[in-house]
Design a protein that fits this description.
The complex is a heterodimer.
Chain A (H helix, E strand, L loop, with lengths): L13 E2 L6 H9 L11 H5 L3 H4 L3 H9 L3 H8 L7 H5 L6 H12 L5
Helix pairs in contact in A: 1-7, 4-5
Chain B lengths: L4 E4 L3 H12 L5 E3 L14 E2 L4 E2 H11 L4 E3 L4 E6 L4 E5 L4 E4 L1 E4 L3 E3 L16 E3 H10 L12 E8 L15 H15 L4 E6 L9 H10 L4 E4 L2 E6 L5 E7 L4 E7 L1 E6 L1 E3 L1 H9 L27 E3 L9 H22 L1
Parallel strand pairs in B: 1-2, 1-9, 2-5, 9-20, 11-18, 12-13, 12-18, 13-14
Antiparallel strand pairs in B: 3-4, 6-7, 7-8, 10-19, 15-16, 16-17
Helix pairs in contact in B: 1-2, 1-7, 4-5
The chains are: A mainly alpha, B alpha/beta.
Chain lengths: ~110, ~350
């Protein structure tokens, strides 16, 4: 193919009509607090893994709701389950437990 | 006690003040332009955060203020300033001489069709918060309910915090009203996906934050931070909403069966008209200017003129009622001082 020096990239628009929330609904059933996240970023800023691995629980929760499950699961692999995010969450979400539940539901395909 | 007290506006502020003045032994006069008392609250269904029926609040106030002289379907034609009083000429030909005027003219709902990009008045499935309350009250609106109701969206800050719409002020109550209406929609249509598009959520009042958390946790209402940029219609008559999801930093698109615009509060034209007649100043936000915005919000800069409620800025129902009671007491003290 001719190299024009540029290429067309796919649209980055999130189409909420096409997001399948079946797994997220299951997650919400066992972790109702997941909806309480207000994306304040406390968890991400305190995360010791975040600085060098890009792990961010705020982004994981958001990505799952926007249909970007692969990205979320990849990010979560860097979590060391230290639980510092649980201590700082102002909404009192048991984030450590949430991470395990997310892993249980979303990573099951990879087993 | 023969002192005339004229209350301009028969909404909840006017009625609450009248009922307090009746208890203090006065015989206030309420002037109301429409054919019923209750103002905007009479058109609402439930009030946040405890889902108090608005009809009960209005009914109670109507009963308590029934002893006042009430002129319905009446407007003020003109006001003459006399030496130490005002001569108010009403549209029904009656004239009243008074030393005390309580302005309770309230607010107007922002005209959502001015924000053309949201499509109110252009697309059928775009309605306002007031239209939705009307449907809650009467069930009489073909746009709601008949359309599948799989996905419903709420747009916050329509005509509020919007310098282009010439309203830089926050209307205060729309955030919590959207949360309330979203919950009510979810209760009526549990299968529906409900989205709220917001800039900030300002949950300032008693129990508002709990209400907001419950909307997320118990009802699964999805809050998307980003202002709606554009609404269009598809071939099935549904509306397609485009916004920026500022938390992901990506554009977002969704198809909805119904879009509800949270129209804000703007100063009522009649407030400005009354203000012009009595030469009262208007504040930089377009609402009536108080003697002092901290210590004298219910007093006009002129002797004998008082304010209560949303004529001086957006207010909640309890704030309005508290101001009306305070204004009634101020009127009473003012009359005592005159003696």
């Amino acid at each position: 193919m001719m190299d024009f020096g540029f290429k067309i990239s796919p649209s980055s628009t999130i189409n909420l009509d096409k997001v399948d929330l079946e797994k997220f609904t299951r997650l919400h059933e066992i972790e109702p607090d997941v909806y309480k996240c207000m994306a304040c970023g406390s968890c991400s800023s305190t995360c010791p893994a975040g600085r060098f691995s890009g792990m961010s629980l705020r982004k994981v929760i958001l990505d799952l709701q926007r249909g970007k499950e692969k990205e979320a699961v990849a990010m979560m692999k860097n979590c060391m389950l230290c639980g510092k995010c649980t201590m700082v969450c102002p909404r009192g979400i048991n984030t450590r437990h949430l991470i395990l539940s997310i892993y249980r539901i979303y990573a099951e395909d990879e087993k | 006690m023969k002192e005339n007290i004229v209350i301009i506006g028969g909404g909840i502020a006017g009625m609450e003040a009248a009922s307090q003045l009746l208890d203090l032994g006065y015989k206030p006069i309420i002037i109301e332009k429409s054919d019923h008392l209750g103002g905007h609250v009479a058109e609402w269904n439930c009030l946040f955060p405890d889902m108090t029926p608005a009809g009960d609040v209005v009914k109670n106030l109507v009963t308590r203020s029934a002893g006042a002289n009430i002129f319905l379907n009446t407007e003020i034609s003109f006001v003459n300033k006399l030496k130490d009083s005002y001569n108010i000429m009403l549209s029904n030909g009656i004239s009243i001489i008074t030393k005390i005027i309580l302005v309770t003219t309230g607010f107007s709902l922002f005209d959502a069709s001015k924000k053309e990009e949201y499509g109110y008045g252009i697309y059928d499935q775009v309605i306002t918060n007031k239209d939705l309350e009307h449907w809650f009250n009467t069930g009489d609106d073909k746009r709601v309910g008949d359309c599948g109701m799989n996905a419903v969206g709420f747009v916050h800050c329509v005509g509020s915090r919007d310098e282009k719409a010439r309203n830089s002020q926050c209307s205060k109550v729309c955030c919590i009203t959207a949360v309330k209406q979203a919950i009510e929609i979810k209760q009526k249509f549990p299968e529906a996906m409900v989205y709220c598009f917001y800039m900030d959520l300002r949950m300032f009042g008693k129990k508002y934050e709990d209400f907001y958390i419950s909307a997320q946790r118990d009802y699964g209402i999805r809050f998307i931070r980003g202002r709606v940029s554009e609404v269009s219609e598809n071939i099935d008559g549904k509306v397609i909403v485009k916004a920026e999801d500022t938390l992901s930093g990506k554009p977002v698109k969704v198809t909805l069966d119904l879009l509800v615009l949270m129209a804000g509060m703007v100063c009522c034209k009649d407030s400005t008209k009354v203000a012009n007649m009595i030469s009262l100043p208007v504040d930089s936000d377009g609402f009536l200017k108080s003697r002092d915005n901290v210590t004298g919000i219910i007093e006009a800069p002129k002797e004998g003129i008082f304010y209560a409620g949303a004529c001086t800025g957006p207010k909640t129902v309890p704030e309005t009622l508290a101001e009306a009671r305070a204004a009634a007491l101020n009127v009473h003290l003012y009359i005592n001082r005159m003696k």
